[in-house]
Amino acid sequence: MSIELGLPTVGPGQGLRGVPTLDAGQALTRKQFVADNEVRWCPGCGDYAVLAAVQGFLPDLGLRRENIVFVSGIGCSSRFPYYLDTYGVHSIHGRAPTFATGLAVARPDLNVWVVTGDGDALSIGAGHLLHTLRRNLNVTILLFNNRIYGLTKGQYSPTSETGKITKSTPAGSVDGPFNPVSMALGAEATFVARTLDSDRAHLTQVLKAAAEHRGTALVEIYQNCPIFNDGAFDVLKDRDEATARLVRLQAGEPVRFGGTDGDANVVVARADGGGVEVVSRDVAAATGREPVVHDPAADDPSAAFALSRLDDTAMGHVPVGIFRSVDRPVYDDLVRSQVDGAVSAAGGPADDAAFTALLTGSDTWTVD
Amino acid sequence: MATTTPLDHVVIRFAGDSGDGMQLTGDRFTAETAALGNDLATLPNFPAEIRAPAGTLPGVSSFQLQFADHEVLTPGDDPDVLVVMNPAALKANLRDLPHGGTVIADSDSFTKRNLSKVGYASSPLEDGSLDAYRLHSVPLTSMTVTALAELGLGRKDAERSTNMFALGLLSWLYSRPTDGTRRFLESKFAAKPQILAANLRALEAGWAYGETTEVFTVRYEVAPAPSRSGTFRNITGNTALAYGLAVAAHTSDLPLVLGSYPITPASDILHTLSGLKRFGVTTLQAEDEIAGIGAALGAAYGGALGVTTTSGPGLSLKAEMLGLGVMLELPLILVDVQRGGPSTGLPTKTEQADLLQAMFGRHGEAPLPIVAASTPGDCFDAAREAVRIAVTYMTPVILLSDGYLANGSEPWPIPDVASLPRVKVRFAHADDVPAEEKFRPYSRNPGTLARPWAVPGTAGLEHRIGGLEKADGTGEISYDADNHDRMVRLRQAKVDGVDVPDLDVDDPWSCDPKGADLLVLGWGSTYGPISAAVRKARASGLRVARAHLTHLNPFPANTGDVLRAYPRVLVPEMNLGQLALLLRAKYLVDVMSRTTVRGQPFSSGDLEHAISEAVTHAPPRTTARGFGPDTSTQEAHA
How much is the pTM? Predict the structure, then answer.
């Protein structure tokens, strides 16, 4: 049996609906989001760049600072909340999504963020991440992916390339890595994006879209660990290499990249079976194959999933940008609408008499 | 015409296959009995398998109740009457029936096939093996089928109403009114008129069979129990506990958010609360036990009453999050409906073996208050007490129930919610912080040592908290040795300082210079069996005092004095002596432990025997110094 739920509104820009905004004419500055705790990441850590971008972009949301909450798990990235002068909770390993679930359900007036890493989100907390995506809770998840365990001093992570030699895998790791974007799309996440710590403009643009999405927004951020996995993303930071490898996804645009005009290669549908592949512009033209046009709003996640498979740990081609952004009913909205609906159908909050009637039930006897 | 004989109490056990509807039959007989004004207590007992193979021993489900014209404390040790729907039910339950007891058996089900399934070579209904009992071999199934012949049901469907025939017969035999059951059936099968007709007709046919045949020459009556005046209902522990939580949220003006993962025998609390949306209750069925408590703690951080419900295995999984709750110092209720362990253990049976897990089952020094319910109805009060402590002291609280309380039921005086005490909750406000000063999230109320509840959305109180050690007052991260030492002791002092009422001792000899010879001290669901056993022991002339702990952490302040006041202390528990261990460690009193771990509550007969043995054979402790406060004695832990 199922029932019609009477769905609350979803739609573009609805992510922050219900969160109090600043009064007209008021504005916050970057500095007002900087907590006075000393930042204790290693020198050169990619987390600094992400923190600076977030501190710089939060004022743009126009929200009241006290209505923003950052929840994190455990790991280097999970120290993030300490450095932002908002509300923040540094919870336990892998469980930040669970904490955020209770908080977001209880408080529709909060803008809730989850900050996590590849170990926190994809190892110990992988189950919670999947269920959060499945439910479409209204939170924005920043997944810092440095492909290594930093805080425990350098063991391989679930995104490390196979064969990774680390302290715990002196002969090389034997398990295959997760592609976090593929995983999120497989869980039917409604918003999935990838960006890089080193590209401030792209990072900010993606974060803003994620924050404004109503539902779970997962943003994978490639982030360099200078101590235990230095240079993991160097090929994407060298200008020439980046040009040859980064596939910048733009809604409504053909997917192409490389060369001075960004169109040396195109992504086309595979001739044999599903998926997409990269071919040179010239080959495509000669064989009459049209580049796929990126549609993050497509209801079916298959095309976005195919794009996510262009990527591998060797980073030959790395799609970045918004893979998917669709509207689907939001878990916390639905939970609240059932309760609010029941309360208003009964004529308002239950008073003492209503509670006494509940306790009384229908089968009673009286002794004089 | 049968003659009617008055009885002061009766214990009936209905037993059959899981699919025979014994729990429903028991529930309805209970409701009829409650409506008549008898005092009662019930004990459902069912297998972990939803439907074990029909007719086998593992598939036997039973429901026992005791009803009386006086106060009833337990569902009874041994049944007076055993109603069995098949040979498996007879085999599984006969050993509990004292000689001379009554067996009512559905003779139709004693077929060759059913007999051989449980290893009977011949039918015990016919081979004389039940000669020591009063046997009524009644073709319940075929009479039901005959009674429903005109309704045009298939034989299988008709047979399904056999339990109502049995209920009708037992209702006649014990002079129970059936109006309530009729109303119940009419509402349950409103949409299925044919099934409704079948059930009603079977019920009537069972009654008529008793009334018109000569099989039962005596009919019984149990007069209403004189009880306190007021309006009563029958209530199970799980229902009372769920209602207690909902009412506690209401009387403390907090929205209730439950994060829970289904687990036997706690799931009915989730079910009940999920039906209370109209009362502002939010329930989340989480993906696992950890997510359940995580959501509850997140909701608590947001200013709701966060609750999570589970059983022993779930408590283990939630342990790390409880540690975070202790560190964050947020109010949180964890309900553990204990069952037989370890591991999957005996999921549908009762045990009290999670006390030490509740007390110590975390990493680091992570103290938290523990409250234990003692009867099904007491689950309502225990839940409210747990909430009072959690929000007053800003701490997670573990509320212990168990399978016996969860599914057992008793008459319950319905409270008037308007007359219940209110719990005042105050959220921190920016005005609390002096101008030019920073908010100190780990400042403390000097009386309770509670920190402020500063919820997001409060301007001026933005702060960061987490699982890392906090600097005293400021709540900043601190790895300082002195600070950690201070914070560990502060968290302990806060829990130690929780205001709990003194332990109340039921001691008729408190003013007698010779005093009582023995104190029986229990906790949790042993309340009923202990009280019944003590009553019997006193009736046989023994001088026995009795006390029951609701608060397991901290213990009532007078606990040490009470223990030291008696020459012998007996502690019965459904574990291997966990409370006894705590009492010995904390108070250096050599208490005697009496334990059972059979998945069933203590029998009051066994306990009476243990009491008599203790009084007769155990030497008194020479250090006992008579009842009464003695300020010269320091607590062992001080």
Answer: 0.92
The two three-digit tokens of residue A3, written as one number: 């029932």
Q: Across residues B107-135, what is the average pLDDT?
A: 95
To which residue do tokens 């159908």 refer?
Answer: A345
Question: Using one digit for the tens of pLDDT, what is the confidence trace for A185-242?
Answer: 999 999 999 999 999 999 999 999 999 999 999 999 999 999 999 999 999 988 899 9
pLDDT at A3: 66
If you write DSSP's letter for every residue of B363-418 in order, what string do you get?
Answer: SSS----EEE--STTHHHHHHHHHHHHHHHHT-EEEEEEEHHHHH-EEEEEPP-GG
From chain B, pick out residues whose CB is under 8 angstroms from the CB of A107. Answer: 302-303, 455-457
Task: Compute the CA torsion angle A251, A254, A257, A263 (nearest 10 deg).
Answer: -140
- Is residue B403 a contact partner of residue B600, using CB atoms and an 8 Å limit? no
CA distance A102 to B259: 8
SS in 3 state form for B543-592? CEEEEEECEEECCCCCHHHHHHCCCCEEEEECCCCHHHHHHHHHHCCCCE
- Phi and psi at residue B355, in whole multiples of 5°? -60, -45
Question: What pLDDT does A36 receive?
Answer: 87
Q: Which residue of A66, A88, A363 is in closest CB contact with B31?
A: A363
Q: Which residues of B touch A365 (CB under 8 A)?
A: 34-35, 37, 231-233
CA–CA gap between residue B61 and residue B407 (Å, rounded): 13
* Tokens 């669901």 sit on residue: B525
Residue A1 has what pLDDT? 57
Residue A21 binned pLDDT confidence (cut-offs 50, 70, 90): very high
Say if CB B177 and CB B32 are below 8 A apart.
yes
Q: What is the ipTM of this complex?
A: 0.96
Q: Alpha helix (H) ranges present in chain A?
A: 46-57, 96-106, 118-119, 126-135, 180-186, 200-212, 239-245, 281-287, 302-308, 331-345, 352-360
* A300 touches B: beta carbon within 8 Å: no
Question: CA nearest B514: which of B631, B633, B624, B618?
Answer: B624
Q: How far apart are CA B571 and CA B546, in angstroms?
A: 10
Helix (H) or strand (E) holding A217: strand A217-222
| B368 touching chain A per CB within 8 A | no
Give every CB contact of residue A256 below 8 A, 6+ residues apart in sequence: A262, A263, A264, A265, A266, A267, A281, A291
At residue B632 the predicted structure's pLDDT band, cuts being 50, 70 and 90, is: very low
Residue B123: DSSP 8-state: -
User: How would you classify residue B279: left for phi > 0, otherwise alpha for psi between -120 and 50, otherwise beta?
Assistant: alpha
Tell whether omega for the bond before B98 is within 30 degrees of 0, i.e. cis: no
Other C-beta atoms closer than 10 Å to the C-beta of B136 total 17
Question: CB A128 to CB B34 under 8 A?
Answer: no
**Interchain contact, B229 vs A345, CB within 8 Å:** no
* CA gap B167, A175 in Å, rounded: 62
Contact A102 B298 (CB under 8 A): yes
For range B471-498, the mean pLDDT = 97
Both tokens assigned to B547: 């006390």
CB contact residues (below 8 A), chain B span 403-432, against chain A: 414-418
pLDDT of residue B637: 43
Distance of alpha carbon B92 from the chain centroid: 24
Residue B297 phi, psi dihedral angles, 5° rounding: -70, -40
**CA-CA distance, A190 to A218, in Å (whole number)?**
9
Higher pLDDT among residues B213 and B167, named by residue:
B167
CA distances from B342 to A240, B304, B346 (A): 61, 33, 8
Residues of chain A contacting residue B460, judged by C-beta atoms under 8 Å apart:
66
Residues from chain A that touch B276, judged by Cβ atoms under 8 A, are 358
Question: How far, in Å, CA of B246 to CA of B638, rounded?
Answer: 38
